[in-house]
Fold this protein.
Amino acid sequence: MLSAPIGRFITFCARHAYAVVALFLLLSCGAVYAGMTCLGVTTDTSKMLSDRLEWKQRSDEMGRLFPQKENLLVAVIEADLPEEGRETARVLAEKLAADHTHFDFAERPDANPYLVRNGLMFLEPQPLSQVLNDTITAQPFLSALAQDPSARGLFGAMSLISEGIKQGQADGLKSFQTPLAGFATNLEKAAAGSRSPCPGSSFWAASCLIWRGGISL
């Protein structure tokens, strides 16, 4: 049934070959131009849905009213020590905040003034109790470091362990074996010129863990 129309079409193209080729080139150029101007690929997920949707319009309006939640760039900092990570984050945030050409603002979620002052209020009762108990237990150690924040003060605070053992407030050195071993490992690495701490701990973290053995002086 279709053989007759197809045959006539082929015959027509053969008789007007130059016109058919010119028309093909014209349509091809038009298709390329339309593709370059009307079609595109974007990784912006906010443009995946039509702007004519009512809920999408409300969402865009919310983003316009609160721009601090839009077009965010998150930087993840990896460091050997928590102190190094916090200091690097602080310096990076200051540098980016001063660059008003490329960034509207820069902030550190862990340095929110309100959370720094009142963060304990958001903890559940059980973890809050653990934090308070650990803080009370570590009070002698922290007090000694606050008075003398040097290596001398650190080792002086560690000498309180032996005093606590003498007074029978701890079951020997068994409960302190792991943190003391990590502390010694960090000191040996530091003496060898390595800045990499032992896995899962840091210089100060290993020191503070000593007080989780139960000594209260």
In short: Residues 2 and 92 are 72 Å apart (CA to CA).
